[in-house]
Amino acid sequence: MVKKMRTALQEFVALESSAGIILFGAAVMAMVAINSAFGSYYVGFLDIPVAVQFGGLEIAKPLALWINDGLMAIFFFLIGLEVKRELLEGQLSSIEQASLPAIAAIGGMAIPALIFVYFNWDMPGNINGWAIPAATDIAFALGLLALLGKHAPVSLKILLLAIAIIDDIGAIIIIALFYTSEVSSFSLLLAGGGTILLFAMNRLGVIRTAPYILVGIFLWICVLKSGVHATLAGVIAALAVPLNAKDGSSPLKHLEHILHPWTAFLILPLFAFANAGVSLAGLRFADLMAPLALGVAAGLVIGKQIGVFGFMFLATKTGLVKRPDGVSWLQLYGLACLTGIGFTMSLFIGNLAFVDPDQIETVKLGVISGSLISGLLGYGVLRWAPASET
Q: Do 288 and 297 contact (CB within 8 A), yes or no?
């Protein structure tokens, strides 16, 4: 059993590491496209109207929103599957295992948010972006760890993965509580019915994945129409999927195995391509020093270091948790730097926080610059950090 879990974890890390490299390539392609002669084609591509209609029900959105609201719901569905598996039998299944990453993740969400608020306290129009620097992009971070080879021990990768999963749980809660627009009671009532049906199927022992997917699509439509962000439907549907069936199979792991490559190598790169395009025309240093961009970048670079490393250090020194075997303090600091790579989740929350195109562009500047600095700093620290120290 332990051997199977270790193998599954290694496969997960390897897949996420490869995905991080592709994600980086997609982001670079977006930057090149928007700042080249193809800029108008890039914008036009994302603005292509796409509509789906069934009788009186119509969903009409530009392509960019189908990616952000539709395809990202699949990504959040996968996150829900991973969270449920980790809580029931993985790295978060016991208090002892979950304590260190939980403390680190809490610090890594709270301190960046406070730093953002500090820079934007006198800017009421910006305050809604407080959660943007609280996120971590696990694919990018693990991708950099993979490039480090022997300089990044397996225990460090496991810790980073656990922190990122708890970070995702926090992001899901934040989106549900703070980034919900006007609510349609009727659509929300239908969504509640879909949710009850999903968990009823679980209790009744339904192990085929097709019913969960079909009801999940219905739930997504209801949540989309309700005003609550549609990606949360993916998380709800995932939590209803059984982990283990009486016949020895695992519907949850089956879906996770199928969806992981599609999410890692198609959905997330598409999201990066659709959202990382920042026009550099007329960009000035003052733009990077604007409160919104600076708050995001400082939250990712400084806030994550203080929050993640500081909380781990204090928790270890006070005896609440133990430092992982074979991992030095400098390596833990390098890991804290890597958690400042916000990218995917930070861009996603930025799109929820603001509707003004200028604010969204400024957020992109902060996310990309902060993530780049965090990644380079984390890589540099881990490249030269000793393997162990007392």
A: yes
Q: How far apart are CA 332 and CA 344, in angstroms?
A: 23
* Three-state DSSP state, 326: coil
Which of these, 315, 354, 350, lies nearest to 100 by C-alpha position? 315
CB-based contact 332:312 (threshold 8 Å):
yes
Reduced to 3 states (helix: H, G, I; strand: E, B; else coil), residue 229 is coil
Query: What pTM was computed for the model?
Result: 0.84
pLDDT in tens, the chain (390 residues): 555 555 555 555 556 667 777 888 898 999 999 999 999 999 999 999 999 888 777 888 999 989 988 998 999 999 899 889 988 987 787 888 889 999 999 999 999 999 999 999 999 999 999 999 998 887 788 778 777 777 778 788 888 888 988 888 888 888 888 887 667 889 989 999 999 999 999 999 999 999 999 999 999 999 988 877 788 899 999 999 999 988 889 999 999 989 988 988 899 899 989 988 888 776 777 778 899 999 999 999 999 999 999 999 999 999 899 888 778 899 999 999 999 999 888 999 999 899 898 899 999 999 999 999 999 999 999 988 876 554
Query: Residue 166 CA to chain centroid, in angstroms?
Result: 10
Rounding to the nearest 10 degrees, give the CA dihedral for residues 370, 374, 376, 381: 160
Instruction: Write the CB contacts of 350 (distance below 8 Å, at least 6 apart in sequence).
Output: 129, 132, 296, 360, 363, 364, 367
Distance between CA atoms of 81 and 236, rounded to whole angstroms?
A: 10
User: Position 102: which residue type?
Assistant: A
Distance CA 338, CA 117 (A): 22
What six digits make up the tokens of 114?
A: 């406070």
**In angstroms, rounded to a whole number, what is the distance separating the alpha carbons of residues 116 and 114?**
5
Classify burial at 263, counting beta carbons within 10 Å of its beta carbon; exposed 0-12, middle 13-18, buried 19 or more: buried
Comparing CA positions, the residue from 192, 97, 180, 186 lying closest to residue 349 is 180
